[in-house]
């Protein structure tokens, strides 16, 4: 995390520095926000940008992440990005610790849906409701950009007011997985061979010790998977297994296209400008971009989902028969397209005490609670209308559900 900062009265301003921005802020126009009055007093220039990223720069980032150069490989991304911005846009930077509350606008360029949902949940958790009415000053707008090859999207989320990430979870394409039977017995593609090694051989052979999970960033791990995948491919006369493909499959890499990233980054930056200056109405609220074949963009208004488990403020109902097993509830939480949880932990309150029904992330608790999975909801002592609290990596908040028994 680095701070990019320039102080407003600094000598780094030069003549005409803000000319382009002035055209938007000092003149009226057809797309102006109805409540905005153009003037020379209007805000100009972003002077305070925090860059948050825990990663270091890898050589494979250089083709698409414009701020990084070969000499930067190994350095923290946040440091280098802040340096670059500061050298390009004169000012100064200093690192600082922060709370999400201190930010006015958050822009996300994340590579996973889980990370988006987490950030979404974080901003939802900061909302203040008084007697059920949202305090608008507690809203921190979230601008989210995403790309996948030649496709991209940019969206503006006003948490608690407009559709959130979880409201539109069904819009995201499912992650493509190969059927296990194909991987195990009828591989046809080089990817099938790599998946075989990743899913079946690695856990069985544990080549780097008992508790060592496969790390897609560790060249020795990838090398091992690569060699084993070659052997598997040879067995089935499959060609095309390469080191690069192995890493791509293990890390689920989707090739990044620099021009798509640039278009989406520009759209996000424009939205930040519109919201920060209040001079123009923001995107309402979801723009898709596609240049697979020609160039196409389309904007639509994603709608809030009334019973969104993240932003609706109402516990969702879970409809199960008393004779359903806890495993079925767990399957629903992970497989339902509107929830798509990853490793949900389910707790409830019984006789005034917290009771963990199932928790996967701590081995000892998993072992202790595993027998509950094969018990029925009735056997577990759960009642109609019982509240279940579910924690998951997809949100920093606990999600409440109400159990509704079906007969
Ligand atoms: Zn929502």
From TrEMBL:
Enzyme class name: ligase
Similarity annotation: Belongs to the ubiquitin-activating E1 family. UBA3 subfamily.
InterPro entries found in the cross-reference section: E2-binding, ThiF/MoeB/HesA, ThiF_NAD_FAD-bd, Ub_act_enz_dom_a_sf, Uba3_N, Ubiquitin-activating_enz, UBQ-activ_enz_E1_Cys_AS
GO terms under cellular component: cytoplasm; nucleus
Biological processes per GO annotation: protein neddylation
Pathway the protein contributes to: Protein modification; protein neddylation
UniProt keyword list: ATP-binding, Ligase, Nucleotide-binding, Ubl conjugation pathway
Gene responsible for this protein: UBA3
Enzyme Commission numbers on file: 6.2.1.64
A Pfam family recorded for this sequence: ThiF
Catalytic activity: ATP + [NEDD8 protein] + [E1 NEDD8-activating enzyme]-L-cysteine = AMP + diphosphate + [E1 NEDD8-activating enzyme]-S-[NEDD8 protein]-yl-L-cysteine
Keyword Ribonucleoprotein appears in the UniProt entry: no
Transport is among the record's keywords: no
SUPFAM superfamilies in alphabetical order: Activating enzymes of the ubiquitin-like proteins
SMART domains: E2_bind (SM01181)
Catalytic site: 181
Source organism of this protein record: Oreochromis aureus
Boundaries of every E2 binding domain copy: 318-406
Protein name: NEDD8-activating enzyme E1 catalytic subunit
GO molecular function: ATP binding; NEDD8 activating enzyme activity
């Amino acid at each position: 995390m680095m701070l990019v900062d320039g102080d407003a009265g600094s000598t780094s301003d030069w003549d005409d520095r803000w000319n382009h921005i002035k055209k938007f802020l000092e003149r009226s126009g057809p797309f102006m926000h109805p409540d905005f009055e153009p003037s020379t007093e209007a805000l100009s220039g972003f002077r305070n940008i925090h860059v948050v990223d825990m990663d270091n720069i890898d050589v494979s980032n250089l083709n698409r992440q414009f701020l990084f150069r070969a000499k930067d490989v190994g350095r923290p991304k946040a440091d280098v990005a802040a340096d670059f911005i500061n050298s390009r846009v004169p000012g100064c930077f200093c690192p600082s610790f922060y709370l999400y509350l201190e930010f006015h606008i958050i822009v996300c360029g994340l590579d996973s849906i889980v990370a988006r949902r987490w950030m979404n949940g974080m901003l939802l958790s900061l909302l203040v409701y008084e007697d059920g009415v949202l305090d608008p000053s507690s809203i921190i707008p979230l601008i989210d950009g995403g790309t996948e090859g030649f496709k991209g999207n940019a969206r503006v989320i006003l948490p608690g007011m407009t559709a959130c990430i979880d409201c539109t979870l069904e819009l995201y394409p499912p992650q493509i997985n190969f059927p296990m039977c194909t991987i195990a017995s009828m591989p046809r593609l080089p990817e099938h061979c790599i998946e075989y090694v990743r899913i079946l051989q690695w856990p069985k052979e544990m080549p780097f010790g008992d508790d060592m999970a496969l790390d897609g960033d560790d060249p020795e791990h990838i090398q091992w998977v690569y060699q084993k995948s070659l052997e598997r491919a040879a067995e089935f006369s499959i060609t095309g297994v390469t080191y690069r493909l192995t890493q791509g499959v293990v890390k689920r890499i989707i090739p990044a296209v620099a021009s798509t990233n640039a278009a989406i980054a520009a759209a996000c930056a424009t939205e930040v400008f519109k919201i920060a200056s209040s001079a123009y109405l923001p995107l309402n609220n979801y723009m898709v971009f596609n240049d697979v074949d020609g160039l196409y963009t389309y904007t639509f208004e994603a709608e809030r989902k009334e019973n969104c488990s993240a932003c609706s403020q109402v516990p969702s109902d879970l409809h199960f028969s008393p004779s359903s097993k806890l495993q079925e509830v767990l399957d629903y939480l992970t497989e339902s397209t509107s929830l798509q949880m990853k490793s949900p932990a389910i707790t409830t309150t019984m006789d005034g005490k917290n009771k963990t029904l199932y928790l996967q992330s701590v081995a000892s608790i998993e072992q202790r609670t595993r027998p509950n999975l094969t018990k029925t909801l009735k056997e577990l002592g759960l009642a109609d209308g019982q509240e279940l609290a579910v924690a998951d990596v997809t949100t920093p908040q606990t999600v409440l559900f109400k159990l509704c028994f079906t007969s």
